[in-house]
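Reply to dn_fold:

You asked what the input looked like. This is it:
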Amino acid sequence: MQPAFTALFMLLFVLLCFLGILANGFIVLVLSREWRRLGRLLPSDMILMSLGASRFCLQWVGMVHNFYLFFHLGEFSKGPARELFGLHWDFLNSANFWFGTWLSVLFCMKIANLTHPTFLWLKWRFPRSVPWLLLGSLLISTVVTLLYFWGNYAVNQGFFIREVFGNMTYMERVMRMEIHYFLPLKFITLSIPCSVFLVATALLIHSLRRHARTMRQSAHSLQDASTQAHTRALKSLIFFLILYILSFMSLIIDAVGFFSTENDWFWPWQIVTYLCTSVHPFVLILSNLRLREVFRTLLLLGRGF
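and this is what came back:
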């Protein structure tokens, strides 16, 4: 790829990250002010603030990591930078996936109209369990991070690879660990929250279809308030699902090592990887009444200047 195109995609990546940082920082700031004012947060606000905070930190870590990797590949490979960046990035990325999953479950519990006893029990229990689910997500992310840290340490030290695969160069050790350790680990640890996300989305789609069929049979308008609430939530969740799966697939493909810093498509691929954490916060702001009103007020103040 021409240097000009590399610089262009690099600039687009930086702009995307800064937009995401601003949007996620806005969510955290508004909800933190609400928490300070009221002394408590709704379960939905807890999830939104946790998700915004993890994405805010993740994008800073990811941006610094990518530029350090691109411009100082030798130091990154031989020094402790790989372990240091990995420690922060793996924890934040795992937490981000889990928080996003609980957001989809919350959508499902609030909007879906199902009568199964298990669903009704979960719908009653879920809001009370949100603080513990968030803490559990942090605990799971910590365990996952330690597993990744051990793999990065093994790559740098070479003791595990040397025993199993014999004498290899550093890049050969990296590729072996990526294929035989990091790829299965990423697939397993990310598939669990992704599966929960898919189940919540499927339940909401099923609820909307059943509700629409009931309205047709009873000759009511499909534009009633309940149907509109279903439809709005479903559109938001499907958009999130597309970004969520795109992020999941990009991380799995990245674990195979297709897009190294020497690859021409390294920076375009980084844009795809961070698309969800940068674009989705704006969807959350526009779909949340409190966030939308504060955002609109800021825009009016900006126009005044």
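The mean pLDDT is 82.
Hope that clears it up.
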